[in-house]
């Protein structure tokens, strides 16, 4: 559930949190909860329950109450039936027990799983929340004035609280780092795995002004990506339409009946494969080790650093277009995953003939559960063991306090996607902000290559030429 959410001031450890909840409810830590359990309104934790360990920003487990009003489609249905059909984060047995114990309540009353929902009902769910860790890399500041904060977002950190993430989000981290009255207002959107430039407004007017400019396409933006293989020479314009196949899995594909989309690409650099990679250890940057016995490998083609100018703004547009062109982002857990797309990674398949949507969805659904979600994965015993050590998946353990299934720490590629928001500029030339190239886009040790990019003239010119032709 989303919408309105309140939290109990999280204590340093889960045990202290349970004690605080028990005192608030009049219960001891060992009592079975038989009354409605909600965290106090306005109980936002200050300071945030962060701690740094193993290069990761972690959050101590805490109790959290989700509140949402009864939706029209829920009316006349039993509470347990709604949870079974709409909320899949936990097993149905957990939700039934939570309703019987009062952790799930309606209008702050203990009603049980057979309660029939009606218009105006407020459904509350208090849960013991376990947030995934994120990188401990700080949020960089590119520019700041009285109206706007321009930041360099680290990869792997979501912008807003969503799903399993709350305090480990850009908005909450900035609030924790600044005065209590600071209210971040993000003006542009970046996926969790994408790094780079973001605009954080300090007041409603500046937020509205910039958001309007972006929506009217009077702001140009450039990304840089690290892709598999040698990307073609010159400017490449991809006009393939994009269709959302599975919102739940974040899967989008090129489809003739999709929404129109256009991206201009240009190779910045190409770096050939090295000949000294070991088959028993990961390469630098976390790239999977080579397996010569498996035949010609996608990651044995070397890699390119590619500049990307999105003319439209479809979900996963750059990732989908690069995948279609046969040069997916090298560590993309969806579009460069051979366990999902097959040996050639399924490019240039606009009709879904090589891989049906149903097959792709089924394979993706296994990722992160009984298989790891990672790029260019192969069915090889050595590689399987390697990925088990480096990627996040179910650990087989549960929380002692709430029986929530626990995940292992995320691996390198769960924290990073080699896609970076490099530049934003006003089309009329009023302002321009550009971040440094990320480490993964710089020349590898011992090789020469560009350490920066030029202007946007060539990419913008390719758009004009495409329109004329």
TrEMBL record:
Source organism superkingdom: Eukaryota
Entry's Gene Ontology BP terms: enzyme-directed rRNA pseudouridine synthesis
Residues spanning the signal sequence: none
Keywords associated with the record: Isomerase, RNA-binding
InterPro entries: PsdUridine_synth_cat_dom_sf (IPR020103), PsdUridine_synth_RluA-like_CS (IPR006224), PsdUridine_synth_RluC/D (IPR006225), PsdUridine_synth_RsuA/RluA (IPR006145), RluA_PseudoU_synthase (IPR050188)
EC number(s) per entry: 5.4.99.-
Annotated stretches, region: Disordered: 276-299
Entries under Pfam families matching the protein: PseudoU_synth_2 (PF00849)
Record-stated family: Belongs to the pseudouridine synthase RluA family.
Role played: Responsible for synthesis of pseudouridine from uracil.
Name of protein: Pseudouridine synthase
Organism field: Apodospora peruviana
Source organism phylogeny: Eukaryota, Fungi, Dikarya, Ascomycota, Pezizomycotina
